[in-house]
Every structure is written in structure tokens, then in C-alpha cells.
Design goal:
Order of helices and strands: HEEEEEEEHEEEEHE
Low-confidence stretches: 1-24
CATH architecture: 3-Layer(aba) Sandwich
CATH class: Alpha Beta
CATH topology: Protein Transport Mog1p, Chain A
Strand content: 35-45%
CATH superfamily: Mog1/PsbP, alpha/beta/alpha sandwich
Mean pLDDT: 83
Number of helices: 3
Radius of gyration: 20 Å
Helix content: 10-25%
Number of domains: 1
Number of strands: 12
Structural class: alpha+beta
Strand order of the largest sheet: 3-4-7-11-10-9-8
Oligomer: single chain
Length: 180
């Protein structure tokens, strides 16, 4: 009887371990007045703050767990979602150009057809810039899209050195964007 009980206990522990490691959990994020949602791997990302630029413009910030480089340098990857409501006749391409003029960067890649874009009237970039404070080069994905009367700039960023470590996760997050 005790051999059977031990086997059942071992089986119960194995099932619990298996179910506990069945894969990552995800948190679905819907931003107020944004007309879209996206999914973040749970436990890896946390909400930082919302900045209300004006009555129609809001910036939402999220950070990931730190990435430690081979030189033992710590980087905090982040997501910045810039949402502008009541846009009138603006479109993704004009919005991208206006934002680029405000914050120029080196364009590594540009895409207007990709599984990372949530709609056909969207544009995306892989970009680089040098951070003046740290002298590091930062690399990012930047998506621009319009949904209903909302313009969105969706930016996923880390240092150039740690980009390869976060790239698959960034791409998974971009693929998760759905429009309401």
C-alpha cells in the first residue's frame, strides 16, 4: 500500500510541476480610450506610469526585467505607447513623419507589410539612436498605426547590445496587438 501511495505522490508532484511549467502566462493590456489591446508576458513586464500630455494625448510606460550584458552592465528594456485621440484626417504615415522630425533616429529597417503590424495602414521601423546620457546606442521597434480616431506610436526599446536577447519577445508582443 505504501509503495502505491509513494507512486501516487510522485505522480502528483510530477503533474503539479508540469502544470506549473506549462508555459508563460500572459497579461492582456487594454489602454483607456486607445481602441486596441496587446499582450505582455506576465511576470516579465510591469506598468510604470501614464503621462497625460494634454486632454487628447497620453503616454503609457512599461518596463521589463533588467537584462545584464556580458560586461555586467544592466539595461532596463521598455515599452512606450503614445496615444493621440480625436485625430481628424491624420494617417499613420504623416504621423510617423511628424514624430520622426521631433525625435530623429537612424532607420535600420522600414516595413509596411509585416505580421508585426496590426492593420494595413500601418508602418514600422527598426531604429537606432545614441543616448547622450549613457553614450550607449539604443535599438528599437517603432510601430505607427491608426484605429478609428486614435493614432498610436508603439515603441519597444533596449540597448543595441541587448536587442538580440529581447527581439523574439518584442516580436511576440507586436504580433499580439489587436484593434477593437
Amino acid at each position: 500500500m505504501s509503495i502505491l501511495r509513494n507512486k501516487l505522490n510522485i505522480l502528483a508532484i510530477a503533474v503539479a510541476l508540469f502544470l506549473g511549467s506549462a508555459g508563460p502566462l500572459f497579461a492582456q493590456i487594454t489602454l483607456p480610450q486607445s481602441n486596441f489591446q496587446f499582450t505582455l508576458p506576465e511576470g516579465k513586464w510591469k506598468y510604470l506610469e501614464t503621462v497625460n500630455v494634454d486632454a487628447n494625448t497620453h503616454v503609457y510606460l512599461y518596463s521589463s526585467v533588467p537584462v545584464v550584458s556580458k560586461d555586467n552592465d544592466t539595461t532596463l528594456p521598455f515599452i512606450r505607447v503614445y496615444v493621440k485621440n480625436n485625430i481628424g484626417k491624420d494617417n499613420s504615415f504623416d504621423f510617423a513623419m511628424n514624430r520622426f522630425m521631433q525625435q530623429p533616429f537612424i532607420i535600420v529597417d522600414e516595413f509596411s507589410s509585416s505580421p508585426f503590424l496590426p492593420c494595413k495602414d500601418a508602418i514600422g521601423y527598426v531604429g537606432l539612436y545614441k543616448d547622450d546620457d549613457s553614450a550607449k546606442r539604443n535599438k528599437f521597434y517603432m510601430l505607427y498605426f491608426v484605429n478609428k480616431s486614435t493614432l498610436v506610436e508603439f515603441r519597444l526599446e533596449t540597448t543595441e547590445e541587448s536587442f538580440a536577447q529581447k527581439q523574439a519577445e518584442f516580436e511576440q508582443i507586436m504580433k499580439s496587438i489587436t484593434l477593437n
